[in-house]
Amino acid sequence: MTAHLAAINGLRLKAECSNCGVRELCLSVGMSLTDTDRLSAIIPQPIKVKKGAALYHAGDPLQSLYAVRFGFFKTTISSQDGRDQ
Fold first, then answer.
1. Does this model's pTM top 0.70?
2. DSSP for 13-58?
3. In this model, does residue 85 exceed pLDDT 60?
4. Is 55 within 8 Å of 66 (Cβ atoms)?
């Protein structure tokens, strides 16, 4: 990556990070652009989850860690009578 592109990516990254709700938990806080690029290379591409679709279900094995960048998720649990709470 050229120095110019690194500077542009740094500005973009700073703008995105400043709006992120989990920036305090972010792995890339304090990383150099080189290290951030390395981290980005091993993180899978973002996924889009359609409205109403489940990201995971209770009892599913832990396979991923998710960070919601846009929108929100509703957490529900089914009661004994089948209602979602």
1. no
2. HHHHHHT-TTGGG-TTTT--HHHHHHHHHHSPPP----TT--S--T
3. yes
4. yes
